[in-house]
Amino acid sequence: MADRDTPPRWDRKMQQRLTRGEAAALGELYDRFSSLVHALAHRVLKDEHAADSVTCEVFAHAWENPDAYDPRQGPLRSWIATLTHRLAVQRLRETETAALAGGGPGSTEELESRVRRASVAARADYIVTAMPAPLRAALDLAYVQRRDYRQAAADLDVTEDEARRRLRLGLQLLATAHDSGPSGAQPEDGGGR
User: Fold this and answer.
1) What is the CA radius of gyration of the chain?
2) This prediction's pTM
3) Average pLDDT, the chain
4) 3-class DSSP state for residue 148?
5) pLDDT for residue 41 is more than 50
6) What angle do CA 44, 77, 9 make, to 5 degrees?
């Protein structure tokens, strides 16, 4: 059995390769996580160009600061997602603050509310994509296809108790999207969640 403190091999190797300055490692990192990064940034910013820009920033940061990721803190995927979230929220806050300063509609409270909603939505998206496939399938059946737990159990070919368990666990994971702390909290660069 693997030691809980031992990070996945790929994550350790990637961090080492980035530290050595291997350009091919950056390409692999981009290929593996660019769709996740862009989707999270777009979910927060709701702007294709801004999401492209944040995507570039995330990978530039990973290239320039490979030691900021500590494999013992969690998976590289989580670190990349946390970094994306932080940079996207920062960009949203800067853009919206500039619009307010320029006489745009709204108030500081409305700005913070928009940032908080975007932050929770992006975190929920990440949680759904990162959760195990059986939980994701159960949630999809229940909330997208509007099946009750009995129908979901039949569709998944599991017991009704198992369907309820999967739905409960999936919902518990999604509930943590609201528990990510204040919208302005900036996670440490090395802390993957």
Assistant:
1) 19
2) 0.68
3) 84
4) coil
5) yes
6) 175
pLDDT bucket at 7, cuts 50 / 70 / 90: low
Measured CA to CA, the distance from residue 28 to residue 190 in angstroms comes to 20
Distances (CA, A) of 143 to 40, 124, 139, 179: 21, 14, 6, 21
Token pair listed for 32:
């593996």
DSSP per residue, 67-118: GG--GGGS-HHHHHHHHHHHHHHHHHHHHHHHHHHTT-SS-HHHHHHHHHHH
Instruction: Report residue 86 as tokens.
Output: 């932080």
Q: Which residue has the tokens 């509310």?
A: 113
The pLDDT confidence band at residue 180, using thresholds 50, 70 and 90, is: low
| Residues near 69 by beta carbon (within 8 Å), at least 6 away in sequence | 15, 62, 76, 79, 189, 190, 192
In the structure encoding, which two tokens stand for residue 61, read together?
Answer: 């940061």
User: What token pair was written down for 19?
Assistant: 């530290």
